[in-house]
Design brief:
Blueprint (H helix, E strand, L loop, with lengths): L7 E3 L6 E3 L11 H4 L2 H9 L7 H23 L5 H19 L3 H18 L1
Antiparallel strand pairs: 1-2
Helix pairs in contact: 3-4, 4-5
This protein binds zinc ion (ZN).
The site of zinc ion has 8 residues, from helix 1.
Length: 121
């Protein structure tokens, strides 16, 4: 018995099961959906990309750093532990904002480092 399988694919936009000829190579959206005006507009606005390993590490460090910065105001009254957590928080946050090229926040973090770093010594 010979099995004939017509390759089909489900469009991720209209969720209809369509023949492969209705799709462009390696595309998940059918041609009809792809050429709708709104879809085209969104395609031009959104750039799809994956995070590089460095960006991932920087992201996680950034979350840790913001945790440190968040708890610092409450720890400052306890033997100035808050200053140490401020400085470590700023150090951990800098890679994320540096990789993301958010220079204003880089400046804020450096300012935090200088301000609370001088308070430490
Ligand atoms: Zn479709």
């Amino acid at each position: 018995m010979k099995m004939t399988t017509i390759e089909r694919r489900i469009c991720n936009k209209c969720h209809q099961n369509k023949k492969l000829s209705k799709f462009r190579d390696n595309k998940m959206t059918c041609l009809k959906c792809e050429y709708r005006f709104s879809q085209r507009l969104m395609r031009t606005l959104v750039k799809q990309r994956r995070l590089s390993p460095i960006e991932r590490i920087a992201n996680r460090l950034g979350y840790m750093g913001s945790g440190f910065i968040m708890m610092s105001p409450y720890l400052i009254t306890y033997d100035n532990i808050g200053y140490i957590t401020y400085v470590t928080g700023a150090l951990l946050s800098i890679p994320q904002v540096w990789v993301g090229k958010q220079w204003n926040i880089v400046i804020v973090n450096i300012n935090l480092l200088i301000g609370y770093g001088t308070r430490l010594f």
